[in-house]
Amino acid sequence: MAMTMAEKILVKASGNKEAEAGEIIMANIDIAMTHDLTGPLSVEYYKIGIKKVWDPEKIVIVFDHQVPADSIDAANNHMFMRKFVTEQGINNFYDIREGVCHQVLPEKGHIIPGEVVVGTDSHTCTHGALGAFATGIGSTDMAMVFATGKLWFKVPETIKFDITGKLPDNVFAKDVVLNIIGNIGADGATYKACEFRGETTRNMSISDRMVLCNMAIEMGGKTGLVEPDEKTINYLKGRSTKPYETMKTDNNASSLETIHINVNQLEPQIACPHNVDNVKPVSEVEGTYIDQVFLGSCTNGRLNDLRVAAKILKGKDISKNIRMLVIPASREIYTKAMDEGLLRIFIDSGALVCNPCCGPCLGGHIGLVGPGEVSLSTSNRNFKGRQGSSDAEVYLSSAAVAAASAIKGKITDPRTI
Amino acid sequence: MKGKVWKFGDDIDTDIIIPGRYLVLRDEKELAACVMEGYDPEFAKKVKKGDIMVAGKNFGCGSSREHAPIAIKGAGIFAVVAESFARIFYRNSINIGLPLIEAKNIEGHISQGDIIEINIDKGILKDLDTNEEFEIQPLPDFMLEIMKEGGLINYLKNHLQEIKEG
Ligand code: SF4
Hey, is the C-beta of B53 within 8 angstroms of any chain A C-beta? Predict the structure, then answer.
């Protein structure tokens, strides 16, 4: 039977021979991730009457949302989770210094193709960039995983995004995915697997593929997926020694629909307040006043984003009315950016470089915006109240738009700098 | 079950339901005190036990935070009715025993403050102010079972061995 990648991975995880979209299956979980913010609620597995988690080696815990602790409540949550880690003998534990979970897991080799990954974080779909079936779940679902190592899934239908053409200068994966979300809407892919294909996807780095998959949830998707190839295999070298199986969508597999996107003429895209699908080309919002620029997050806090921004900022000062936060997504990225001299460029231009963490992305930690203020952010969500006050506004963009806008003090097309 | 309607639009996201800065909280009552703060800071004070939230499409989009359905349930909301729900919110709500009712074509037909009656067994939702009736989409059997057993934790207590042996 011809199957999609998503179907093949779930079939294998369930021990069945085949499955069709719509069927409910019970899958064995390969990696279960939780973090400092949603972790404490997930640890309620013991309420089921169980003392030990099913397999401590398959659990990964990352502290990233409120690091270092910014309140006594956060410190309490950290203490609570550290105790859980010790009691359960969990070795894959990354305390406050390591960075954002969706960067740390692939970097540290926890993600390999063909596996089922769940995390108590909606952007767990990011890991589909390496060909895993990865999806966000809630804390009670995680309690079931901790207790049994299993979780039920409805096998999703797949939407194929066939991306072709050459990205123009200063146009990036972020612009492609914002454009897609603007077109299909915030619920355009609800319950569906979003598989990114086509020559443009093939030409993208793993980091850029992560940007596409990261934002699958912003169109309602259950997971993002990219077929593993040479680039995937190269990425895994030196990170993971686990054997893996690369699964690919059969040509004649029935998928719901194919959406064709040609990027040859694509402009930088901006998601305007207060919904991720409120997307406009930069030319329509140029000149919009901003107070803060945030370069970071599990969407665009990677080395290539920092390089793009540093190239634009080199030798220039950011505008006096702007506060700019640069937050590398992980310690590995932070040290590489340091070695390449990127951090120096940011600091010289007037930006503030913070420790690897989620930062203002979710409005729970550092760098929040006040009532009436406007943030331009390379992250993935601009909901009302997302980065602080519910009377603030958040615009989303690529790293290039963020850097150019920081210099001008207003939303700026990087092609004009 | 009857209740008073609190009306909302499309795409009500989890940051509106419970903003990120409150996620350090774990207690149902503490979370309930800030529910829907981004929408109406007084909402938690106004809502009464047994009230029902009615919204448009894609309710609960965004984060996987289970704090969102916990805050809604903790505020005394009996059920959430919407044209459609986001996936993770949907699972989370059923898992903690917050009834979600999917009903099409309610947009523009049910108003703030109306009293509605929900009959899950018959699959009917009725607006007692207008006498209009709407069909409820049935829950998948598996989720109905979880709901009937009082949420996923109870379900697991009852079925742990079967699931483990699978
Ligand atoms: S960077 Fe933002 S979106 Fe990513 S995990 Fe952290 S809070 Fe969530």
Answer: no
